[in-house]
Amino acid sequence: MSPEAHSAPRSLAEALRVRDDASLAALLRSRPDLVTPVPTDLTQLATRAGTRASVLRALERLDRFALQAAEALAVAPDPASYGTLLGLMAGDAGDEAVAGALPRAVAALREQALVWGEDDRLRLVRTARELLAPSPQHPSPTGLGPTVQEATSGMSPGRIQEIVAAAGLPSTHDSVSAVTALTTLFTHRKKMAKLLAGAPEAAHEVLSRLVWGPPYGQVTAEPAAHLRWLLDRGLLLPTAPGTVVLPREVALHLREGRAHRAPEPVPPAVAPAAAHGPQVVDATAAGQAYTALATVEELLKDWDEGGPAVLRAGGLSVRDLKRTAVALDVSEPVAAFWAELAYAAGLVASDGEADERYAATPAYDEWLEQPPAERWVRLAQAWLTATRTAGLVGGRDAKDRALSALGAGLDRSAAPEVRHRVLSLLAGLPQGAAPDAGSVLARLRWERPLRGAQRDGDDDLRSRLARWTLSEAELLGVTGRGALAAHGRALLGLPPAAGAGSSKAGPAGTGAPAPGSLAAPDAGSPVPSGPGDKLPVHHHRAPDRLAPLSAADQAVAAAAAARLLAPLLPEPLDHVLLQADLTAVAPGPLRRPLADMLGVLADVESKGGATVYRFTPASVRRALDAGRAAADLHAFLTEHSRTPVPQPLAYLIDDVARRHGHLRVGAASAYVRCDDDALLNEILADKRAAALRLRRLAPTVLAAPADPATLLEGLRAMGYAPAAESAEGDVLITRAHAHRTPPRTAPEPVPDGPPPPDATLLAAAIRAIRAGDLAATAPRKSAGEPLAGGELPRTSSAETLATMQAAVLTGDAVWIGYVNAEGAASQRVIAPIRVEGGFVTAYDHTADEVRTYPLHRITGVAELADD
User: Fold this and answer.
1) pLDDT tens across 574-592, in order?
2) How far is 771 from 40, CA to CA, in rounded Å?
3) Stretch 814-823: mean pLDDT
4) What are the WYL domain coordinates in residue numbering (predicted)?
């Protein structure tokens, strides 16, 4: 091993050079932007790791304690020893919890290449120091001001000597030694205590207001006596006319050596708010999962013949969202959530026609054919990975434009990570425990303090995403009563909870929230569940951060979730209960053919655990218009009712059927014909027909200037049951036309930066970086003028050929400059094997394989220096 390997690294590149492959892989995994594209060598990797954008992204991914350690290093001398850092974090008293957690924080900073150097010379990368260090424009998060040396840099030597004398120090011959003496005084605990003991009481109050920041204050041209006492002794130093600052050394003395008021070495625990039986949780979640399926189905059924129009700027109008909310019997935010969920799952899209409207996609028909559990898994997986955020609907974007459902501007790249993290925290609680929402938010803020500081409106975005996650998970059925259900846990790819067995719950849906309620049970106000009361706060270890699942893992997780959910979902029924008041009660979900037919024959009056349908003349006529005969309707009801068909319902069907089609409406503009001229006389005599402007053409024919549809509606409003007919005189059967978009793919999530590299890419990247670094740093024999960094060697063709032939004979490796066919230049270390026909065949250390190079593309060659 070379002596350089034993010496302390002098740069980040040298520190990276002595890392092993596992350490480099950890760096590239935690900061994937560094590997896109793959750096040519370790010097380029170090340069990229120090860029402002990359460092800021790395700082945003630090937890609160690691960030506090980085902030302490930003205000510490550069370089700083580990003992200095420990003193800034733990203070003079020495906090044991801080001392125990600090090695982990330093290791995390080292792993991400934010800190390098040995423990006696820790260095924070310059860009991070600039981002975290204090300045008047960007106050330090620690609340510390500049050092004495920095604050006195523009001060006159005479004034510095006055301060030294007032502080009780001997005068010096120059300003540098004076500032050094003053700094030594301020960092000496006993001498500083003696100096402050003589300060006026009001001066102590001033110092107490500035000690934890901000350290800047305003003074008048004639400061009060207590302020003059502080200024004379350098305890406050002027930075600008009328502005003073508390020097860093003074603040640290008053803080007892701590850089932070409250170091947070331990993450806050996620506190359980209420406990429920696992079976109750699973059953509640399953009931809500079924409600979610029914709601999405109802939404797309409402848009089956073409949904609302697409706004010019994209998305749903406020009016259409309100109408959809009324149709689903939910609030507008909930309607926006369901529309966005269907869109994320690829079940709805715009049709792309001239009169652009939203409609179901062909994938919706395929989705309907799947078992209920598999349909739910598709919705839940789409929700987990979607970056579109329904909670933003109704808000304003950065340009003060309204954000509409299904419109642009709803993507938030942090949404999938927050959803996974919130659910993983729930998975770390005892089985059946619902979390306290406040403790979840506190934990997320500890894990990503800088990202939490980026505000998106009145509240920080991550907190809002977490609240929406808790609500939407409950609405979707991933959680039940606030606790993570077994099928929700499987969906995340987590193993079953300890002690979890097969869940044999009672009727699915017991205790499920109302279909129209977006709000999950508030963790701050737990829902009582009998024996399930408040739980003590435990420091349960949540699962590690959930990495994105591969396609194969997603399939396995989906199958496991569907397998756990399927037994909890209610079996579709093949019957209803007919009642004498012209209603039918469906005591549970109905099989699809029965539900479809009943939806035509009757109107839904109420929904819930049992759906109530009401038969009316209009609904029966709708079934007759669809081509059903009265006998078909009687047979259908008799077959599917567990109770006898009531007489009033049978009479209603027969009465509507008897009158259905007695009148015929066609196009004249429109006409009415009927074999019973007395009925036509009755229509003409009815005052309500005046608006139709009917006139008799023949004893059995009336004509009107209105179109057939208007004439049909007018006669039906008068209580008649006309039927439309074709130009040939046949009765027109009106069946609902299912409008579908062309094939559409689900919207792609917006990534939050480059994706983490997989193991194959990491291995290849490290191999390429190592090889490129070998070529760039291999010692070479000097020949002529030394080359600048990155410059290719230059030799004549004869010299190149002679050096290559000599290397073949000796078996030595050489350093070459090479330009490929695309004009890209590179440096390589090769071991020539043979030279013939204008080509050199050699083992390329850079690529770790044997390659052949045209001699005319080699710019020059140099022998490697002896070790």
Assistant:
1) 888 888 888 888 887 888 7
2) 9
3) 83
4) 799-861
Domain's final residue, options 108, 132, 156: 132
Q: What's the Rg (C-alpha) of the chain?
A: 39
**703, 724, 745: which is the final residue of a domain?**
724
Q: Are residues 457 and 549 in the same domain?
A: yes
123 shares its domain with 250: no
Does the pLDDT value for residue 263 go beyond 50?
yes
Structural contact between residues 197 and 228, judged by C-beta atoms closer than 8 angstroms: no
Q: What is the mean pLDDT of residues 558-578?
A: 88
476 within domain boundaries: yes
Q: Is the pLDDT of residue 454 over 80?
A: no
The residue segments making up the domain with residue 92 are 3-132
Report the pLDDT value the prediction gives residue 453, as an integer from 0 to 100: 56
DSSP letters for 781-836: ---SSPPPTTPPP---HHHHHHHHHHHHHHT--EEEEEE-TT--EEEEEEEEEEEE
β strands within 417-509, DSSP E: 433-435, 479-480, 483-484
Nearest to 115 by CA among 70, 177, 62, 151: 70
User: Would you place residue 457 in the very low, low, confident or very high pLDDT band (cuts 50, 70, 90)?
Assistant: very low
User: Could you read off the pLDDT of 641-664 as tens digits, one per residue?
Assistant: 888 989 888 888 888 888 876 666
Encoded tokens for 774: 């070998």
Contacts of 282 (CB under 8 A, 6+ apart): 480, 485, 486, 487, 503, 505, 564, 568
- With CA atoms as reference, report the closest residue to 260 among 71, 450, 451: 71
Query: Among residues 358, 339, 346, which one has the least CA distance to residue 299?
Result: 339
Helix, strand or coil, per DSSP, at residue 160? helix
Strands 603-606 and 243-245: unpaired
Cα–Cα distance measured from residue 559 to residue 715, given in angstroms and rounded to the nearest whole number: 55
DSSP per residue, 90-135: HTTTT-HHHHHHHHHHHHHHHHTTSEES-TTSBEE-HHHHHHHS--
| Cα 637 from chain centre | 50
When pLDDT is averaged across residues 515-543 and rounded to a whole number, the result is: 37
Question: Strand pairing of 603-606 and 483-484?
Answer: unpaired
The reported pLDDT for the residue numbered 791 is: 61
Whether the CB-CB separation of 498 and 431 falls below 8 Å is answered with: yes
| Interval 143-168 mean pLDDT | 89
Q: Each residue of 38-65: pLDDT tens digit?
A: 887 888 899 899 999 999 999 999 999 9
For every residue of 530-548, which 3-state class applies, written as one string? CCECCCCCCCCCCCCCCCC
Same-domain check for residues 630 and 693: no
> Using CA atoms, how far apart are residues 819 and 827, in angstroms rounded to an integer?
9
Residues 186 and 232 in one domain: yes
Q: What angle in degrees, to the nearest 10, is found between the helix axes of 551-565 and 278-302?
A: 110
Q: Are 287 and 512 in contact (CB under 8 A)?
A: yes
Q: Which of left, alpha, beta for 215 (phi over 0: left; psi -120 to 50: alpha)? A: alpha
Distance CA 858, CA 817 (A): 6
Kindly state the tokens that stand for 361: 């996609």
Residue 784 has what pLDDT?
41
In this structure, the answer to whether residues 671 and 625 fall within a common structural domain is: no
Q: Is the pLDDT of residue 749 over 50?
A: yes
* Same-domain status, 202 and 238: yes
Average pLDDT over residues 565-572: 87
Note whether 700 and 674 are within 8 A (CB). yes
Q: What are phi and psi of 244, to 5 degrees?
A: -125, 160
Q: State the Cα–Cα distance between residues 696 and 684, nearest whole angstrom.
A: 9
pLDDT at position 619:
85
- Which residue type, as a one-letter code, is found at position 23? S
pLDDT digits (tens, 9 = 90+) for 697-711: 888 888 888 888 888
DSSP 638-657: HHHBSSPPPHHHHHHHHHHH
- Are 704 and 668 in contact by the 8 Å Cβ rule? The answer is yes
